[in-house]
């Protein structure tokens, strides 16, 4: 199902989100909350104890699991490496916006169109 609000994703955003693993119609679907989540795959990975402790602290502050925090950092890092001209904070905020439930979002209304 394609979101009725997005008939076409702007090229800049399509390119940016493609580097994050979201592309084409799925990006429009994601923006409307219809994105299909792929099944999770479990893999064991060795990670430095200090990094795990840092992830545990950050996860508590961000209300994520340790695994979720490390996945988030990996996605931000991948997005930053693929888009060196964008600030990491923009990439992080974009990922958080994509994960936000559709019913909790507020549509953007340009100032020129407000009543």
Description:
This protein has one domain (11-103). 51% of the residues lie in helices and 0% in strands. It has helices at residues 11-19, 25-31, 49-62, 66-82, 88-99. Helix 3 (49-62) crosses helix 4 (66-82) and helix 4 packs across helix 5. The protein is globular, with a radius of gyration of 16 Å. The chain starts with 10 loop residues before the first helix and ends in a 16-residue tail after the last helix.
How is the topology of this model organized?
Layout: H1 11-19, H2 25-31, H3 49-62, H4 66-82, H5 88-99
Helix pairs in contact: 3-4, 4-5
Unreliable runs = 1-9, 24-36
Mind telling me the C-alpha Rg?
16 Å
Residues in β-strands, percent: under 5%
The N- to C-terminal Cα distance equals 32 Å
Number of domains: 1
The beta-strand count equals 0
Main structural class: mainly alpha
- Amount of helix: 40-55%
**Counting H and I runs of at least 4 residues, what is the number of helices?**
5
Order of helices and strands: HHHHH
Give a short summary of the structure.
By secondary structure, the chain is mainly α. It has one domain. Helix content is 51%, strand content 0%.
Features:
mainly alpha; disordered N terminus; single chain
């Amino acid at each position: 199902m394609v979101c009725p609000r997005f008939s076409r994703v702007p090229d800049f955003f399509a390119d940016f989100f493609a580097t994050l693993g979201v592309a084409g119609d799925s990006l429009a679907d994601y923006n409307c909350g219809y994105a299909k989540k792929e099944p999770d795959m479990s893999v064991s990975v060795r990670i430095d104890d200090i990094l795990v402790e840092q992830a545990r602290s950050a996860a508590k502050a961000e209300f994520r699991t340790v695994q979720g925090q490390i996945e988030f950092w990996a996605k931000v890092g991948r997005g930053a490496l693929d888009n060196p001209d964008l600030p990491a904070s923009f990439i992080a905020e974009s990922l958080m916006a994509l994960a936000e439930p559709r019913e909790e979002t507020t549509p953007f209304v340009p100032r020129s169109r407000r009543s």
